[in-house]
């Protein structure tokens, strides 16, 4: 769905100072990025929160509350604007009552919001954060766009929290890429009878860190001075 009015999109190239250094850890960093929002956020410390589009009510609550708590500690929450966990994480960050922001990496051009029901959320993120895509305006969502989006999420983050993921899911792609890049990987466990817990349990078996509370994540990541977003 196209936005109601054409956003003020800018393009940055890999050889320019604004290009985020963390993306250069990728073997195939984007040649350029399209940005809608405050570009100064790109180099602040980020934690990715990803998970199922068909998340349970508990998964939605976990995404929202972890995003709130981590935002309050000075981290930007980054996710993919998808239904379920992604949307809840963005909303939790925006409602943190700390004036903090969130970053959404999109699987379409930034003048097209997908899914369509997240138009209002995308506008709220642009007003208080940043929308990012390597896809030019006018390009709609395609299945192969999302794994490429996920590699950007993984590279920009310092750590990745997976909340509810099936055994084959885009969230596990993000976690695998993050592990290859040396990012910290966290997972929330669930019932052995829930198919959406199997991906998280697989990550834990492979060495991801158990996240029972935001404190478990904060203990593993570097301490950062809380940024003052009033001046950003």
Q: Can you walk through the features of this model?
A:
By secondary structure, the chain is of the alpha/beta class. The protein has one domain (11-219): Rossmann fold (3-Layer(aba) Sandwich). The protein contains seven helices and nine strands, in the order E-E-E-H-E-H-E-H-E-H-E-H-E-H-E-H. The protein has helices at 57-72, 85-94, 119-128, 145-156, 170-180, 198-205, 214-218, and strands at residues 10-13, 32-37, 46-51, 76-79, 102-105, 130-133, 159-163, 184-187, 209-210. A nine-stranded mixed sheet has the order 1-2-6-5-4-3-7-8-9, with helices on both faces. The radius of gyration is 16 Å and the shape is globular. The two termini are 29 Å apart.
* Number of separate domains: 1
Helix and strand pattern: EEEHEHEHEHEHEHEH
- Architecture, according to CATH? 3-Layer(aba) Sandwich
Based on Cα principal axes, name the global outline: globular
Percent strand equals 15-25%
What is the terminal-to-terminal distance?
Answer: 29 Å
CATH class category: Alpha Beta
Q: How much is the average pLDDT?
A: 91
Number of helices: 7
Biggest sheet record: 9 strands, mixed
Number of strands: 9
SSE layout:
Layout: E1 10-13, E2 32-37, E3 46-51, H1 57-72, E4 76-79, H2 85-94, E5 102-105, H3 119-128, E6 130-133, H4 145-156, E7 159-163, H5 170-180, E8 184-187, H6 198-205, E9 209-210, H7 214-218
Parallel strand pairs: 3-4, 3-7, 4-5, 5-6, 7-8, 8-9
Antiparallel strand pairs: 1-2, 2-6
């Amino acid at each position: 769905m196209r936005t109601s009015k054409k956003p003020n999109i800018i393009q940055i190239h890999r050889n320019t100072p604004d290009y985020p250094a963390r993306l250069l850890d990728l073997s195939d960093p984007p040649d350029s990025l399209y940005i809608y929002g405050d570009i100064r956020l790109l180099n602040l410390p980020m934690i990715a929160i990803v998970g199922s589009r068909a998340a349970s009510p508990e998964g939605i609550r976990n995404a929202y509350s972890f995003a709130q708590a981590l935002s309050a500690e000075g981290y930007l929450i980054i996710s993919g604007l998808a239904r379920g966990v992604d949307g809840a994480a963005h909303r939790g960050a925006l409602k943190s009552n700390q004036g903090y922001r969130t970053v959404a990496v999109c699987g379409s051009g930034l003048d097209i919001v997908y899914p369509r029901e997240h138009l209002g959320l995308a506008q709220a993120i642009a007003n208080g954060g940043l929308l990012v895509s390597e896809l030019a305006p006018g390009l709609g969502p395609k299945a192969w766009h999302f794994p490429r989006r996920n590699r950007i999420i993984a590279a920009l983050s310092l750590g990745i929290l997976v909340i509810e993921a099936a055994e084959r899911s885009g969230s596990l792609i993000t976690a695998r890429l993050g592990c290859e890049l040396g990012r910290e990987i966290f997972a929330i466990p669930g019932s052995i009878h829930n198919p959406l817990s199997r991906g998280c349990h697989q990550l834990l078996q492979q060495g991801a860190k158990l996240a029972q509370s935001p404190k478990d994540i904060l203990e593993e990541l570097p301490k950062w001075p809380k940024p003052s977003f009033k001046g950003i």
